Amino acid sequence: MIRLVAPLTIAFGALTLLTALAAMMVAVPFAMVTMITGFCWYAERPRTPRRTGLCGGCRAGCVECRERIETAG
Questions:
Q1: pLDDT tens digits for 6-29?
Q2: How much is the CA Rg of the chain, to the nearest whole Å?
Q3: For position 14, what pLDDT does the model report?
């Protein structure tokens, strides 16, 4: 029985490393895809800059911006 301890320890250690490697091969790509998707979503989502509750001057020209332009001009 004592003679089996060292080989079993080595075998279980190798299995642990293989399991960790297999988990990383699955988990790392999923994590990368999640981070890239989140970044792309954040970068592409429409944002309206706000200053004191009003639109900060977007390209689309919201109603508040057009009203300010018309009253100023």
A1: 999 999 999 999 999 999 999 999
A2: 29
A3: 95
Q: Which residue has the tokens 């309206």?
A: 48
The residue length of the chain stands at: 73
CA 38 to chain centre: 4
Mean pLDDT, range 38-65, rounded to an integer: 68
Exposed (0-12), middle (13-18) or buried (19+): which is 65, by Cβ within 10 Å? middle
- Please check whether residue 48 is in contact with residue 56, taking contact to mean a CB–CB distance below 8 angstroms: yes
Could you tell me which of 54, 51, 34 has the C-alpha nearest to residue 42? 34
End-to-end CA distance of the chain: 94
